[in-house]
Write a structure and sequence with these properties.
With about 675 residues, the protein is mainly β. It has seven helices and 51 strands.
């Protein structure tokens, strides 16, 4: 059955082509497995709550008939502005909000560090999210933010207050030289745009929409994670060819089930640590149906996700076995109004067998953050750059350090291959069991051997969600094969790091694998364990069971002062030439340029495969495909077959320039 929706009709019909519904929600109430909902261009100011899901063989599809022509928004137009000095003032009846008023609800929760001072709602001027002021006077004076990545934008401010009788929400806004009665001013009213209120509504496709503006809440790992659009703990969704922007917190949610006994437990009850409640959430997950047969397996592809203030794609456990490909994710958490441990272009907990490939991620507080259980995770063929705060911006109190990729407290196997990493930090590696193969790396490794403290985290039956065990992070068990390292950024060994929750610290800025020099090679490590003994001495071996795991490093090329691991095999350290790798925003798209291949003519590496990489130590799982088959790294960044002479880096042949389209759709 095909249902038709067109918001321009004067009278809502029965959903037929000649008498379409005026609201998507009308179709969402009656769409059944196998149905398709065709939505004409227009602005749909509604919350779409699908009544039913599809099946594996009979999906329910919601499709904009023109790509990005149909807009689903959680905002309403705000009119009736009156001048108040250099401010403008307007108000609305609170009945417009129903049971959820974003202007009495604050952003807060576990792992949120920026203070309970921001509302979940927001005001927009011509699709620009305004900055929230602390008072009317603050709104009136409107000083530039010294932490915003775009300080000029921070002059546009809003402040909100409830009327004395509690019946109205009153807004004061500083629009600078703009007259709001002549501009498009909107305010967020709804918490989500397209998301089932109940779990288990699987096999839904959402194609070609613009999803814009919602008063989403903070989405930590041990809480219900609501976002502008998401499957809400189900299986088999496809979100494709969409533009998703202007979420107060996060854009796409592939997140956790709702558990009233563990929903922001630390924030509300305090007595158990948030880390413990994450472990609790994992173990309770099986009770809530966290199995490969029930949960995950989603696809997010060809979407542009931007200007969200917590994360672009966020998820805890619900995103397992998913594919995230060909997306353009940019300008995430740039306002610096929200701070905490859940901010990134992609932030996934338990990204078990998740593939993230061919995504372009830039100008995010962090590019990709895989937290806990990055087991079977593969990050491949992505371009990441400018994922670092501008030099002029101060650090947000409660904010996070910036890098292209962060893998945290996982046991692997986590595979990072064929990526172009151009930010000043390429990988924050407070973890173990990582393999980096055929990447071009211009930034440093940070948190080597740090950042895990006493946290012990789960690992799983290979390619399943069932928990296999728990263990602290020993660090090491990492492989670096056929990469190119370029010291592009300042080469001081260490620079100051501003992490507002701790004393000012320092972190590495030296590019290369030498930061693992104190770690053993495999031969050095295995020799400690008396492998020939039939009756090993447990007390004697105990220190080695708690010590660092080995490092493998081979076939890597180092330029501009980048340094090699002390036991590098078949590598090349070029101390003669100065090379470059850069990306430029042009009218034709983003252009990546490098001259490094000019200096690699005589270098050849061996072909790497799953057998060479071996198994991650704790789960004893190979670096392999989700179906258990071997990976042979015989195709490059473009999918071209590698030649007999294998070059390091992402490309099978010398490359000087590539162009990346700005519109993934």
């Amino acid at each position: 059955m095909i249902w038709h929706v067109d918001q321009s009709v004067k009278i809502s019909g029965d959903g037929t082509e000649n008498r379409p519904f005026s609201r998507i929600s009308d179709a969402a109430k009656i769409a059944r497995p196998g149905d398709e909902v065709l939505v004409a261009p227009g602005i749909y100011r509604e919350y779409v709550n699908p009544e039913m899901g599809g099946t594996e063989n009979a999906r329910i599809t919601y499709r904009s008939t023109t790509i990005k022509g149909a807009v689903i928004t959680g905002a309403e137009v705000l009119t009736g502005w009156e001048k108040d000095g250099n401010l403008w003032k307007a108000s609305v009846e609170n009945s417009i909000f129903g049971s959820y008023n974003p202007y009495t609800t604050y952003v807060y929760g576990d792992w949120y560090f920026a203070g309970k001072s921001r509302h979940t709602g927001c005001v927009f001027l011509n699709d620009r999210m305004l900055y929230e002021a602390a008072s009317v006077d603050d709104c009136r004076s409107s000083r530039k933010s010294d932490i915003s990545w775009f300080p000029e934008d921070s002059l546009y401010k809003w402040y909100v207050q409830q009327s004395e009788d509690g019946q109205r929400t009153i807004f004061w806004c500083n629009f600078q030289d703009k007259d709001p009665n002549s501009e498009n001013v909107e305010f967020t009213v709804r918490r989500e745009c397209f998301m089932p209120s109940e779990a288990g509504k699987g096999y839904i496709t959402v194609s070609g929409f613009k999803i814009d503006k919602a008063a989403t809440t903070w989405a930590p790992p041990a809480a219900f994670q609501d976002c502008m659009i998401g499957p809400h703990w189900s299986k088999g969704w496809i979100i494709e060819d969409c533009e998703i922007s202007n979420s107060k917190c996060s854009g796409i949610g592939l997140g956790k089930y709702y558990d009233p006994d563990n929903d922001n437990y630390f924030t509300t009850k305090h007595v158990k640590s948030p880390t413990q409640m994450e472990r609790d959430a994992v173990c309770r997950g099986q009770y809530h149906g966290w199995l490969k047969e029930n949960i995950g397996g989603h696809i997010v592809r060809r979407c542009e996700i931007h200007h969200c203030e917590q994360g672009g794609i966020i998820g805890r456990m619900g995103g397992v076995f998913s594919l995230i490909e060909d997306n353009h994710i940019h300008h995430i958490n740039n306002m610096m109004e929200l701070g905490g441990a859940e901010t990134a272009g992609i932030k996934m907990h338990a990204a078990i067998d998740v593939i993230m490939r061919r995504n372009h991620i830039h100008h995010c507080v962090m590019g990709i953050w895989c937290d806990w259980e990055a087991q079977g995770t593969r990050i491949t063929g992505n371009l990441l750059h400018d994922n670092q705060k501008p030099a002029y911006a101060k650090a947000l109190a409660g904010g996070m350090t910036s890098q292209d990729i962060f893998v945290e407290v996982s046991h692997g196997p986590t595979l990072i291959d064929h990526n172009i990493l151009l930010s000043d930090v390429s990988l924050r590696i407070a973890t173990q069991g990582v393999a980096m193969v055929h990447n071009l790396i211009c930034g440093a490794f940070t948190f080597v051997g740090e950042g895990t403290t006493w946290r012990y985290t789960p690992y799983h039956i290979p390619h399943r969600t069932e928990v296999m065990g728990f263990m602290t992070i020993l660090h090491g068990d990492d492989r670096f094969c056929n990469n190119i390292f370029i010291q592009k950024w300042p080469s001081e060994d260490y620079v100051g790091r501003s992490d507002s929750r701790d004393e000012p610290q320092i972190e590495n800025r030296k590019v290369g694998t030498n930061v693992w020099d104190e770690y053993p090679t495999y031969d050095e490590w295995i020799s400690r364990f008396d492998m020939e003994s039939d009756t090993p001495d447990m007390a004697k071996l105990e220190p080695f069971h708690e010590g660092h795991l080995p490092i493998w490093s081979e076939g890597n090329a180092y330029f501009n002062g980048a340094l090699a691991f002390r036991a590098e095999k078949n590598g090349m350290v070029d101390t003669q030439n100065t090379v470059d790798a850069s990306v430029e925003d042009t009218k034709d798209g983003w252009v990546f340029r490098t001259d490094v291949y000019t200096y690699l003519k005589d270098m050849a590496c061996r072909m790497i495969d799953s057998d060479i990489l071996g198994k991650a130590f704790e789960p004893e799982e190979r670096f392999e495909n989700p179906d258990g088959s071997s990976i042979i790294f015989d195709q490059d960044y473009f999918g071209r077959q590698r030649r007999e002479k294998v070059l390091p880096g992402p490309f099978e042949a010398p490359v000087k320039e590539i162009i990346i389209s700005k519109d993934p759709a």
